[in-house]
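=== RUN LOG ===
request id: a7f3
mode: sequence -> structure
chains: 1
length: 93
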Amino acid sequence: MTETSRSGTLPLTALRKGDVGVVVDVVDDGQMLGDSDGSTLARRLGELGFVPGADVEVVAVMWLGHDPLAVRVGGSTFALRGREAEQIRVRRT
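=== RESULT ===
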């Protein structure tokens, strides 16, 4: 399990099925997604609703490596790759 950082946050992948948390931050790794508008992963996650203050719930963990991870944010459920979920920092509630 990933340890809590000094700021008290965890990557989303540290949560288990049924755990609930609040998004604290989305780390921008600066890598482009390859689309025409130059989106980064952090921007795309923000557009999906992964913004500071949003409640998240882990709905399902598909494989041992959390890849993919089914997460509910707002009224929507998304399957995130492990690399994507690692960028979302949460505080467990």
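=== NOTES ===
Residues 41-48 form the longest helix (8 residues).
The first strand starts at residue 10 and ends at 11.
=== END ===
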